[in-house]
Amino acid sequence: MAAPRQSTRNPRPGDDVVAEPAPGSERQIASPSYILPAEDTGFLLRDELRAVRFALEYQKAELLLRDAGIRSTVVVFGSARIVSRERAEELQRVARTPRERRLAARHLRYSLYYEVARGFGRLVSERGGALKANGGFRDNVIATGGGPGIMEAACRGAADAGAPAIGFNIRLPVEQRPNPYVTPSLCFQFHYFAMRKMHLAMRANALAVFPGGFGTMDELFEILTLIQTGKAPAIPVVLFGRRYWRRVIDFKALCDADMVSLEDLTLFEVVDDAEEAWQFMLRRGLRAHSPAGVAVPGGKSGRRRSMSKGR
User: pTM of the full predicted structure?
Assistant: First the structure.
């Protein structure tokens, strides 16, 4: 580390004068203990500093979203394994073994949801307020987990409309690169799933869920639980793909077993296309506004509760 330079002007009262290091102090300056805490990665990554890192993950995304005027979002969940029709057809062309042909057929079948998610991302961006700044704010901006598959499709739809798209990526043991349709200045990376989930939820005006696996189910049922228990506002929730959801989850069986109430089954709607989803969200009160408790430029906030109830 280079030694600090001494000021060339005469010091004034109250100045902090940085003197040249005394001869022989090189070892002291090179010691890790001498590094400023904010610049000491080894120190910041200690187990005891987990709470600080957690707070930093909240604050960085919060401030950058606020600077960008992102007031509210429409969150899209779904499988990272679903590919576009173009990619599915390419896989089908190069398939050689029976297993490869089966996988290619599955990719082609599920590519329908990629196209629907792309159309949904474009429709929401064009009609929801993401294209223009309303008093400095953008509303109902597409927000996803930032990865491939359905997340890529929704962000691609926003890009088709010329609108921004947010990517809340998560660092995993098997690295997953952000999809190329996320707006670069709105592309975030998280270590903590809990903080990522909080940012996905706290500005959400609506939730759209496409076919997916464990991660998709985790996100869906967490949001439904928050709404069911009154810890979050009753935002519109749509599940895309009647055939898929009928096969994967028997929601009525949960009700028949008295594990949920009949009223709980009205917390969401199962749809097949983007227009149907949009009309349902409008009937459930979707509009351009800020969930209350969410910080926006100028310190203003909206009238509705945030997903975290301002906590």
Answer: 0.85
